[in-house]
Amino acid sequence: MRHRSRLAARLTDQRGFGIVEVVVAAALALVIAGSAFATFDRSNTGTRTAERHEVAVSLAQRELERLRRHGYAALGLSGVPASATPTSAANPADPAEYVSGSNLLVRSNFRNRSSAPPPGVSSAGEPFAVVTGGIGAAPERVTAGGWQFDVHRFVTWVDLTCVVGGTDRCAGPRDGKRITVAVRPVALPGSLGMAKPLWATSVLTDPTAVSAGALPPKPSAGSAGTAQAFHLYDTRCNHGARQAIGGSHAAADTGTSLVCADLTAGRPDLMGTAATTQTQAFDFSTDLPVARGAAPAAGLGLLPPEAGQPSCPTAYTILRAATDKHRVHRWVTPAMASTFTSTDRSAMTLWTRATAAAAGEATFCVSLHKVDGLLATPITSVTFRVERWPQDRSQLAFTFQHPAFSLAAGQRLMLTLSLATGSLPAGIELFYDDPIYDTVLSVGTTTPLP
Amino acid sequence: MPIAMIVLAIVAHAVASAQRGERNVRVHSEALRAQHAGLERMTRELREATSFQYVSSQAVQFELYVRRTGTTRSIRYDCSSASRCSRLEGPPGGTPTGPVTLVDGLENPNVFSAEPDPLAARFVGIVARVRTAPNRPSITLRDGVQLRNLSSRF
Questions:
Q1: What crossing angle do the helices spanning B2-47 and A19-68 adopt, rounded to 10°?
Q2: What is the C-alpha to C-alpha distance for residues B84 and B128, in angstroms, rounded to an integer?
Q3: Shortest CA gap B108–chain A (Å)
C-alpha cells in the first residue's frame, strides 16, 4: 500500500530533473560516447591498415615473381637508383634511404637501417646489377586493392660462399643476383597515412654455373617449334600490310569472296605478323542491329546465328551479306613468300566482352582454312565455350590441336570467327588492331616467318 | 534516468553493431584466406611443373615430379565451372580425377594467362575474382609463377 502510494507520488511529481543532474548525465553520455567512437575508429583504422598490409605483401610477392621471369642473364636494373637523405636509422621511411652510392645496404631487418646485414653480406651492401635494357631504376606507382603504392625494385650482385672440401666453389664476387622489392604505401586524402615500406627479397643463382662435382643442368628437351603470331587488323586483304585506321565504320563484309584483289567483293580482312602501335578505340560495327548499352561501343560486334542457320558459320552468300556480315568475320594472311609449316597446335588470344554487358554463356567458333586462289581447304574448326562470357573487356585465350599443315608459296591462311547457336542473343564484342587490346592467332610452326 | 537509458541504448546498439561488423569481417577474412591458400597451392605446384600445357583461360595442365614418392603426376586446374576452380590429379598420360575445390565463389572466366604466348608459356598469370558472401563486393586475387623447372612442353 505504501509502495503504491510512493509510485503514484513519483508519477504525479512535476518537479523534473535538476540542472546538475542533466549536466552530469550529459557529461557522462559524452564521455561514454566519445570513448566508444574513439575505440571504433581505432578498430576501423587497424582493420584498414591490416588490409593494406595484406595487399602490399601480395604485391611484393607478385613483383618478385615478375622479376624472376626476366631470366638470370637479363635480370638487372637499367641504372643505379637515386638515393635519399636518411630520415631515421631506426625506422627509415623511404626505401631510397638504403641506396648508398652504387650499393644497396642489404639488412637483415629492413625496418632498421643500422641493423646487421645478413650472414655473408658486407655492411657496405651489395653492388647494383646494371644490364642493358634492364628494369627501370625509378619506383613505379601501382594501384592495387584500392590502395596506391610506390614499388621500388632493386637487383644486386650476391657474393655466395659455397665451400666444398675446404674450397670455395663459388669463386668471384658475382655468384648470384638478389631481387629486393620494397612496397611503400602512398598516403591519399581521406585515407590512411603514409606507412613504412614492406620489404621482400629473393636470391637467384646463375643457372649456368656448375661447380666441380655437381651435376650439370638438366638438358632441355626442346620444343616442337615456336609460335608464329598473326595479329588481326582492321585492314582489307588487298593490302599487303596493315593500314592506319581512320575512324569508326560499319561492319565489313568479309565472308563472300576469297579474292583479295577484287575490291567490289566481300574479301577478308588482313592478319599479319607485326603488332600495331596505333592506339585506337574505334567501332568496327557502327551498324550492328542490336542495342550496345551505355558503355562506349567499340570493336567488332559478332552475333550468334539466326534460328535455323547452322551453328558456327564460316561463310555466307552475297544475298545474306547485309545480315550475316555481323555473324561471320574472316581474316587472311598475306600470300606466303615461302613454305610455311605448322605443328599440330595453335592458340587464339582474344580481347572481348558481352555486348551491352549482358550476362550469359557464349561459344566462340574458330576455323582455319588453307586458301589457294579461289579454293579454301578446311584445316580445323574448334569451339571455346565460356559459361560466363566477360561483361568487362577481358582477355581470353585457348589452345587447340589440329592436323599439321603446310602453306606453299602464294597460299594464305584464313581465320574465321563466329559464334555457335545458343550464345548470348546480343552477341559479343571483339577488340583487335590495338597495342593493348590485341587479338592474336598463334600458330605453332617449325618455319617462323621473318 | 531516461537520459541514462538513452545513452545506454546508444552504447548497446554501437556495441552490437561493432560485434556484427567484426563477425562479418572475420567470416570474410577466413573465406579470403581459404581462397588465398588455394591460389598459393596453385602457384607452388605450377612452379614445380616439368612440362606444361596451357589449355585455355580456364584450364591448365602440367606434370610435376613428387620427390616424396619419386613419381611424376599429372595435374589439371579447371576453372571452367561457373563458380569454382578444381584440382584434378592422375598418372602422366592418364585422365586426372578426383576434383578438389581450390577456389570457390569464382566470378571471372579469364583465370589463367600465359606469357609470352599460350603455345610457349614461361610465365603463368592467375587472376581470381571471388565473392566471399552475396552481400559483399568481389575481391580480385592476383598471382603469377615463372615456370622455372620446365624441361618440355606437351
A1: 10
A2: 10
A3: 7
ipTM of model: 0.82
Give per-residue pLDDT as tens, A133-187: 888 999 999 888 788 899 999 999 988 765 555 566 566 788 788 999 999 988 7
CB within 8 Å of chain A, chain B residues 59-78: none
B126 contacts in chain A (CB < 8 Å): none
Identify the closest residue of chain B to A60 by CA–CA distance.
Answer: B143
Q: Which domain holds residue B56?
A: 2-153
- Can the peptide bond before residue A95 be classed as cis, meaning omega within 30 degrees of 0? no
Fold of A226-445: Jelly Rolls (2.60.120)
User: Full-prediction pTM beyond 0.80?
Assistant: no
Segments making up each domain of chain A, as ranges: 48-205, 226-445
Please count the structural domains in chain B: 1
Asked if the model's pLDDT at residue A222 lies above 50, the reply is no
**Separation of alpha carbons A311 and A277, rounded Å:** 35
Residue A192 phi, psi (nearest 5): -70, 155
Q: Which residues neighbour A94 within 8 Å (Cβ) at sequence distance 6 or greater?
A: A84, A87, A184, A197
- Whole-angstrom Cα distance, residue B107 to residue B144? 19
Instruction: Give bridge partners of residue A185 from the DSSP assignment.
Output: A149
The model's pLDDT over A196-206, given as tens digits with 9 standing for 90+, comes to 888 888 887 76
Cβ distance of A390 and B10 shorter than 8 Å: no
Mean residue pLDDT of chain A comes to 85
Identify the DSSP state of B107.
-
- Please, where are the H alpha helices in A321-417? 321-324
Our CA-based measurement puts residue A432 at a distance from the nearest CA of chain B, in whole angstroms, of 17
First to last CA, chain A: 110
Side by side, which strands form the sheet with A147-158?
A: A140-144, A147-158, A176-185, A198-205
Mapped onto helix, strand or coil, the DSSP state of residue A205 is: strand
The answer to whether the CB atoms of B54 and A347 lie below 8 A apart is: yes
